[in-house]
Amino acid sequence: MKLFYENIDRPGLNTLQGYRNVGGYEMLEKALAMPAEDVLAQLQASNVRGRGGAGFAMGKKASFLPKGTMDKYLVCNADESEPGTFKDRELMQKNPHLLIEGIIIAAWAAGANRSFIYIRGEYDHQADILDAALAEAREAGYIGERILGSEHSLDLVVHRGAGAYICGEETALLDSLEGKRGNPRLKPPFPALQGLYKGPTLINNVETLMNVPLIVRMGGEEFARIGTETSTGTKVVSVSGCVRRPGNYEIELGVPSREIIYGLAGGPPEGRTVKAWFPGGSSAPVLPGTDEMLDLPYDFDALAKAGSMLGSGAIIVIDDSIPIVDVALKTAKFYRHESCGKCSPCREGTNWTVKMLERIDSGEATPMDLDIMASVQEQIMGNCLCVLGDAMAMPIGSMIKHFREEFEAHIEARREHNGLGAALPQVNRGRHAGPGPMLDPAGVDPTAAVV
pLDDT, tens digit, for every residue of 334-350? Predict the structure, then answer.
């Protein structure tokens, strides 16, 4: 079933008239004719889960906003910075009015009167399209005071980010919207109670909000019949890496992962096999390319049970021509660069991980360094202000778990290539990576007295 992609390539869909030609804004009229509580009940009945990574039920999240006459905010997180993810870019570029309609209806359900689209700074073209669509919607009376003669009033602003991955984290995004440096906030208080400008705030991903008009059209219970019981609806997945047909594909949640990787994306190049794959972007724990893992249903619960997560829906495929050490090092370097540096486990942990992976890549490491690195990942997870540290620790830890033999073989091969001979006993050599004396690559303690 296609919900998002039914008309996605229809010429002119990004314009108001083109969107109206396929029933655009009819669901807004329907929603505004209903009490806000009934619209919220439909969102809850759909059991649609957030498509940005966390997978939290949208209707439940919207219900957390307190009642009252204070300003309440709805923020659309369009800061699509997760490596491997490019679904929101296409959705906003080709069907911006669906997002705007979804925001207006969701704001009505949650009681919000002010809204923002925080879009990734690099998405300049998409931001221009959103600005044009927003101007059309405002002129048509869909944005402003007493929309379509109802009790609902809403202001909407498109805000461009400045290129920081950390601003994809919801509280860092709020700080950035307020004109501050994008740093994560300590929680609680949670945004639903004290978010943007200290007001109640609902934050949702682009794809999540685009589901809202579809839910109103179908009804929450009918929407919930698509997919699985706990992973309802369809999902736009971004498939990249070692596949023949990379791109965005809309799938029903619960289909076998193999159908996505091999069926839709064509599988790896001829003569190659899948070594590993990220099910939900670079921050998701890696899964090996075994038949058992490739046959997993692609839904929130099945992937979580297998030790990974659906995340943002970005499937990155690694074939057997790619060294796993290269994948780990590039992943760690990215998160080290993007760490805001506010908390020690992330700031120091990402840096130490990169250094240890560089030792492995150069052949200076020993198998003990793999244990130390795995331990560092465990110390990072759950101990940071936000999930950026976890976003590095989870995939790196999973690579060590599933591909330890390849890491060890890489160390041996590098040592032989560098003329260092077989691996020395399990001690730390070269750059200091933990307790004990700092030894040079030959295993000599430079601080020892010369006899």
Answer: 999 999 998 999 999 99
Phi, psi (degrees; rounded to nearest 5) at 268? -70, 170
Query: Structure tokens of 250?
Result: 């809309």
CB atoms under 10 Å from CB of 217, counted, come to 15
Confidence at 378, pLDDT banded by 50, 70, 90: very high
Would you tell me how many other CB atoms lie within 10 Å of the CB of residue 378?
A: 11
Residue tagged 């390539």 (tokens): 9
d(CA 49, CA 312): 11
Contact indicator for 282, 334 with CB cutoff of 8 Å: yes
Q: What is the pLDDT of residue 415?
A: 87
Cβ-proximal residues to 32 (8 Å cutoff; 6+ apart), any chain: 108, 147, 148, 150, 152
User: If phi over 0 gives left and psi between -120 and 50 gives alpha, with beta otherwise, what is residue 268?
Assistant: beta
Instruction: For residue 55, name the pLDDT band (cuts at 50, 70, 90).
Output: confident
The CA–CA distances, whole Å, from 346 to 53, 351, 381 equal: 19, 8, 9
Who contacts 364 (Cβ-Cβ below 8 Å, separation ≥6)? 429, 430, 431, 441
Whole-model pTM over 0.85:
yes
**C-alpha–C-alpha distance, residues 234 and 242, integer Å:** 24
Residue 154 phi/psi, 5° resolution? -150, 135
Distance CA 167, CA 180 (A): 11
